[in-house]
Amino acid sequence: MRLAVVGATGLVGGVIREVLDETDFPFDELYFVASPRSIGKTMTFQGKDYTIIGMEDAIALKPDMAIFSAGGSTSKEWAPRFAEVGTIVIDNSSAWRMDPSKKLIVPEINGHTITAEDKIIANPNCSTIQMVVALAPMHRAYGIKRLVISTYQSFTGTGVKAVRQYEAERDGREVEDPAYPHPIFENCLPHCDVFLDNGYTREEMKLVHETRKILQDDTIAITATAVRVPVHGGHSEAVNVEFHNPFDLDEVRRLLQNTPGLILEDDIQQNKYPTPRQAKNRNEVFVGRLRRDESHENALNFWVVADNLRKGAATNAVQIAQQLAQQVEA
């Protein structure tokens, strides 16, 4: 197993290394790939020093798998070239998510659909992943008619530039090259990604399109408001879901308790509900605050939290790679 990590020096790339180490991923050779300014530098992993290489050298090595976390334009340019030499690419960017010829995979939901013919596999958006892990068993049981979503997303989801802006504002230093048009420290910005012609942001529309694709149901009505918040790691979402069919709240709880990769924390008498702080550095999705929507028949409210750099990006990608490795062994 020859594995390449493309974008190894970035924020998500660092978490991919952590998850690979924790899961003891079964590689024989490992290549760290980054932009020209990092080529030739060394990176230590599991006690061994690796020299960072560039894209052309990585392609020449013909890795079996490559986990990409290097941005959409980089993926568009380089992922097909890796695929041409037989490498299976697992891509963290938005480049391939809505391509009808590419699978959009959350292993707990649709990992079984991956085949040997899939050379470029898309990792969904972080806010989508955690929500659909909770929604999938409900959709199978009751059929989702409509979703109203409000997100509270960590600035770490924007990347290193946003982290630098937050830290500079927190420390009272001048902000150089800010990631956002307004301060993020002690502030909330209803502005995740760029605004589109319909008045929604691209992040909000990702929730619409990616959810429908993963759940394989284009009839689901979805609307979202995505907000960037001053939380250092961890996305939270308040979700209102309307079903086609009646539901039993205790049955919903049982469904969630039996969902792989999900932890139900829902005991308001004990003030037990998920927070992004407790989800930080965890690979699971946490769900709580389950309650009927008393204003609408067959509707439910819930709260879902996950570490956006883990299950929202690195962990999901490594889980896809693990499944592929198991298929090769089989």
List strands and helices in order, with pairings.
Blueprint: E1 2-6, H1 11-23, E2 29-33, E3 42-45, E4 48-51, H2 55-60, E5 65-68, H3 72-84, E6 88-91, E7 103-104, H4 107-110, E8 120-122, H5 126-142, E9 144-154, H6 160-171, H7 202-215, E10 221-229, E11 235-243, H8 249-257, E12 262-264, H9 276-279, E13 285-292, E14 299-306, H10 310-329
Helix pairs in contact: 1-10, 5-7, 5-10
Characterization of this structure:
The chain is α/β, with parallel strands linked by helices and 330 residues long. 34% of the residues lie in helices and 24% in strands. The protein has a 6-stranded parallel beta sheet, sandwiched between helices. The longest helix is centred in the last third of the chain and has 20 residues. The chain starts with a strand and ends with a helix. The model has no long low-confidence stretch (mean pLDDT 96).
Short description:
The strands form 3 sheets. Strands 2-1-5-6-8-7 form a 6-stranded parallel β-sheet, sandwiched between helices. Strands 10-9-11-14-13-12 form a 6-stranded mixed β-sheet. A two-stranded antiparallel ribbon has the order 3-4. It is built from 10 helices and 14 strands. The chain folds into 2 domains: 2-123 and 313-329, 3-Layer(aba) Sandwich (Rossmann fold); 127-308, Dihydrodipicolinate Reductase, domain 2 (2-Layer Sandwich).
**What is the first-to-last residue Cα distance?**
14 Å
The multimeric state of the shown protein is single chain
CATH architecture of the largest domain: 2-Layer Sandwich
Element pattern in H and E: EHEEEHEHEEHEHEHHEEHEHEEH
User: Biggest sheet: strands side by side, in what order?
Assistant: 2-1-5-6-8-7
CATH class of the largest domain: Alpha Beta
> How many domains make up the 3D coordinates?
2
pLDDT < 50 runs, ≥5 residues: none
Q: What would you report as the Rg, rounded to the nearest angstrom? A: 20 Å
Number of beta strands? 14
Mean pLDDT across the residues is 96
Would you identify the CATH H-level superfamily of the largest domain? Dihydrodipicolinate Reductase, domain 2
Largest β-sheet summary: 6 strands, parallel
The share of residues in helices is 25-40%
Counting DSSP H or I runs of 4 or more residues, the number of helices is 10
Strand content: 15-25%
Shape: globular
CATH-assigned fold name of the largest domain: Dihydrodipicolinate Reductase, domain 2
Structural class: alpha/beta
